[in-house]
Design a protein that fits this description.
Distance between the termini: 42 Å
CATH superfamily: Nucleoside Triphosphate Pyrophosphohydrolase
Radius of gyration: 16 Å
Structural class: alpha+beta
Helix content: 25-40%
CATH architecture: Alpha-Beta Complex
CATH class: Alpha Beta
Number of helices: 5
């Protein structure tokens, strides 16, 4: 552990612990993940930083249209797959929620996205692609509704950004994104 990294990210570590402790997991699997995340944070004071352990927290956001029938996804450049918006926490992020909001705004080009205040899902996954020392993400996922008629912009991190019908997600993504989209729709009341 790097004491300098832990000190620089102490505010995000404390926030992540508080958010996860207060979160009402919707099912036993999500409750187990929450406990795993809390154990990871207990063992790693730098567990919210990319420069911390190879497994670390990230923040992401599922973005739906106002009808809840479309989800905005990014074709991630490094992973070469379609995902929700998200990524690493940065030292300047005041909270985990703010990190997810920043990532969603940066990667979608939609400056007015404001996720719900509480996470909608947790997802722990091993990374596929060229991610350097990063090996595993403990993702804390939020949900937001894009303004009607919002036109997304492709960022440097993506090949493409596109709206997809929630019942016709990109090939190979339904197992991961389907539950997230369902959780987001439920939390947003769509």
């Amino acid at each position: 552990m790097s004491a300098g990294v832990a000190a620089a990210f102490a505010h995000l570590h404390a926030d992540a612990v508080a958010v996860l402790r207060a979160w009402d997991a919707p099912d036993p699997g999500q409750a187990r993940l929450r406990e795993d995340y809390l154990a990871h944070l207990d063992a790693h004071a730098d567990g919210v930083a990319k420069a911390g352990p190879p497994a670390h927290l990230t923040g992401s956001c599922a973005v739906l249209d106002p009808t809840g029938t479309q989800v905005l996804l990014t074709h991630h450049r490094k992973a070469d797959q379609w995902f929700q918006f998200g990524g690493h926490l940065e030292q300047g992020d005041p909270t985990l929620w703010a990190a997810a909001r920043r990532e969603a705004r940066e990667e979608s080009g939609l400056p007015d996205l404001d996720p719900l205040p509480r996470p909608v899902q947790l997802d722990r996954h091993v990374l596929v692609g060229s991610f350097g020392r990063c090996h595993e993400h403990l993702d804390v996922r939020y949900a937001a509704v894009a303004p009607a008629g919002a036109a997304a912009v492709v960022s440097d991190e993506s090949h493409d950004v596109r709206w997809w019908p929630v019942d016709a997600l990109p090939v190979g993504t339904a197992a991961e994104l389907g539950p997230l989209v369902s959780a987001a729709r439920g939390a947003l009341g769509l």
